Queue: 2 jobs
Job 1
Amino acid sequence: MTTIAIVSQKGGSGKTTLSVNLAAVAEVSGAIALIIDTDPQATASQWGAWRNNKAPEVIDSAPPRILAKVGAARAQGATFIVVDTPPHADSAASRAVEAADLVLIPCRPSAFDLAAIKTTVSLVRLFDKPAFVVFTAGPPQAPRMYEEAAELVRSFGIEPCPHILTDRAVYRHASAAGASVIEFEPDGKAAAEIAALHMWIAAHVNMSTRAHEEV
Ligand SMILES: Nc1ncnc2c1ncn2[C@@H]1O[C@H](COP(=O)(O)OP(=O)(O)OP(=O)(O)O)[C@@H](O)[C@H]1O
Ligand SMILES: [Mg+2]
């Protein structure tokens, strides 16, 4: 069982896009996936309603209930849980990080957006959970820009994830249709990006669980 918290206090950084697509690719890969929507804007829940509640299931949660809902979902057989959080909300982000095995901080690779993740990084550090910044919605071909962004992220004391979700219109088109990119354009580049990220997460969580058990 894996619980991923998606947090960033910066609005519009790609939290919900990452949450729904990651849960959808996990489901397609054989997991029983669940999205816990802790955002009063209820964007992930809206996406769930647009797809007539086709799996992955989306449930909502007030911040103090997140841990209990993760426990209940686990008891009911969920194997991959993604907790989507609102911007500017310490309590939802804190409770989501507390419940998570891994924290992902989506961030656009621009100077303003990168500067704004420092607060999120400080919050995540309090909980000592594995955490990575995932670059979102940047240009597909800009290796130098990603190298510089990665360097800046490291200077904040956090590692960038080796997989990125680049700026692709299909993310917007799929969401508007209540779909994930893996359903909307299974052979597309966005689907390949999210599948690669999911595989990396699965390997990473397995590795850290084993290391933890060996201690
Ligand atoms: N990789 C991407 N490529 C293209 N568009 C993207 C990508 N990621 C996100 N977007 C678009 O950017 C906008 C904001 O994304 P999203 O709603 O996922 O951000 P958020 O962090 O959840 O926002 P909020 O802080 O308001 O909850 C949406 O219109 C979404 O479709
Ligand atoms: Mg959102």
Note: The chain has a mean pLDDT of 95.
Job 2
Amino acid sequence: MRFLLFIVLAISAIWAGDYKLKYWKAGESFGEYLTKHKIDSTKFYSQIAPDDVKFLSSIMSKSPFFENSENGKLKEALIPIGEQMQIYISKMGDDYKFDIIPLKYKVVKDRVTIKIENNCFIDIKKATNNPHIATYLKRVFKDKLNFKKLRKGDIVSIEYEQKSIEGLPWDEPKIEAAYIKRGDSEYFAIKEGEGYKIYSNKESSETKVVTSSTSAKYQAFRYPLRKIRITSKFTYKRWHPILHRYRPHLGIDFGAKRGEPIYAISSGKVIYSGWMRGYGKVIKIDHGNGVVSLYAHQSKLLAKVGQRVKTHQIIGKIGTTGRSTGPHLHLGVYKRGRPVNPANYLNHIVKINDGVTIKKSVKIVHNLRKELPFRAKIVYNSLKKENSNSYRWKNLDSTVKIVIQKREDKHARVKLRTTKGDA
Ligand SMILES: [Zn+2]
């Protein structure tokens, strides 16, 4: 009997962690998501605090989230909103519970070296247990290296960082450095600003050192009201006095009188003008380069979808429509679908685009190691430390310590020290 119980517990423990990574369907509303899972939305919305309804429209299109299903029925779902909080849906009997909880993710730093067996995409996925690394790696090398030409025996080494939730990758992997050996050719990519600098030792036209320079674009942002009175700041964790829980407030609230004009914070194109659950009468303006502003609770909308607006142009009037306790403006700013603090934009000239332009230099590198910058050399040199039997590297943080000593004469010394830890 005890033995049987043990088996049941073991199986349910496996189920409990059975999350699957999904991507939010572009344009899908939260209500549509509930319907898809045969969840009664009216009943569901009735248990959500008025303030929380707004976050349901903060879910980003195509963004990753996690589902735990049993026999095709949704058991649990974790849907990140912003960078620190997430919606948590869980099945309780026949009903579903709703909550907003802090996002718990781990940052995994890893270095993996792979000897290509047959297909680099499959091999990289297998070695990293991450379906996105190869795609990002291909992007790092862009046109400088044809991934299709990688053959059996070629070597790929990657140093990267990945956020993970429930053991599954979340958000984009950050590739810090990468090394590829294709036949006699060696390629090295190291992160530099927003892009990568590629080094190679191969003496052919495609191995010329390619450097990218940036020409940034700037845009001015102004306040949305004539008189500024902030009643609620942007925060991921706002203590809710009634619910006794932390709740995010992914925008800034400005106190104002009903009917006061609302101004566009910058020039752009109106992409939404109408009613939105929780937000009432809303206007959304696309400022280009992934920046979108949102103006909620208006009494009157004065701009139409498709209309181009100038900075400080009147787009509507203050009201208290939607879930609101009094006349005010809720201003949200989104960067690539992710809520960001509007305070970083208002009354500032903001760099909104790095506008990468590629400049080609004709320098050919013979001694790759000599040409590498200091940090890249650390990675490159430690590549040689690799055990030739095993191509899987040990985690740099737990087993190898890099000690950098800066001396008076500015010659930095690097020490690689192995410490005890799990391999
Ligand atoms: Zn607000």
Note: Residues 232, 249, 251, 253, 330 surround zinc ion (CB under 6 Å).
